[in-house]
Design brief:
Arp2/3 complex 21 kDa subunit ARPC3, cell membrane, Cobalt transporter CbiM, 7 helices, 216 residues, transmembrane, mainly alpha, CbiM/NikMN
Length: 216
């Protein structure tokens, strides 16, 4: 579950409005620290992220997010900006409503932001492909937890008395095993990306050429 495919009008205003406000504040703060020399590189990786999110895989129409690898390569700030652009374009294409752009940015951005520092630690004790795979898994776990929190918040408003599971809560129960499968797929793809970059262009990795030398 990389982002929310929820049409406009289903989520309460306090939920999607607060998500959009937080996303815009973080976008402004990240923009102030942006590096103009990396605009083309960031745009290329953002386009790759958009293509992965827009192309369904298999009969269940699951699609990759690539939030982990993009977060590792761009860093939290650049990846968050890419996540906002991708979420906005996907909303215009019908992958969720415009009201969930902020929430989807936070979900994708959280996965990308977590992957980068985790990779920085793991790359010192294991090979690049494995470090990227486990970092992506950690980012997907955080993003999935945030996705679950949003869906449950929409299914049961704060302060409401306990009640029978709603349709959204049943959807969460059904989607959980699919999310685990998606986490595994994202990690495998990240492993392949890490192996490719390690062999072909290790300078793109955080730490550049030194990363391979530090790995056992």
């Amino acid at each position: 579950m990389s982002h929310l495919h929820i049409p406009d009008g289903l989520l309460p205003f306090w939920l999607w409005g607060s998500g959009l406000l937080v996303a815009l504040v973080l976008l402004v703060l990240s923009g102030r620290a942006a590096n103009p020399q990396r605009v083309a590189y960031q745009g290329a990786l953002g386009g790759l992220m958009l293509a992965a999110n827009a192309l369904p895989i298999g009969p269940l129409e699951y699609h990759l997010s690539l939030a982990g690898p993009i977060g590792i390569l761009l860093g939290p700030l650049g990846a968050f900006q890419a996540a906002f652009a991708v979420s906005a374009i996907l909303a215009l294409l019908g992958h969720g409503g415009l009201t969930v752009v902020g929430l989807n940015t936070l979900v994708l951005g959280a996965g990308a932001a977590v992957a980068r520092p985790v990779y920085g630690v793991l790359a010192r004790v294991m090979r690049v492909p494995w470090a990227m795979a486990w970092s992506t898994a950690a980012g997907q776990a955080v993003a999935g937890g945030l996705w679950l929190a949003v869906v449950l918040a929409a299914a049961r408003p704060w302060g409401a008395p306990p009640q029978a599971p709603s349709h959204l809560e049943r959807l969460v129960a059904f989607a959980f095993p699919l999310w685990l499968l998606g986490l595994a797929v994202e990690s495998i793809v990240a492993w392949g990306i890490g192996r490719f970059l390690e062999r072909v262009h290790p300078a793109l990795l955080p730490g550049g050429l030194t990363v391979r030398a530090e790995a056992p």
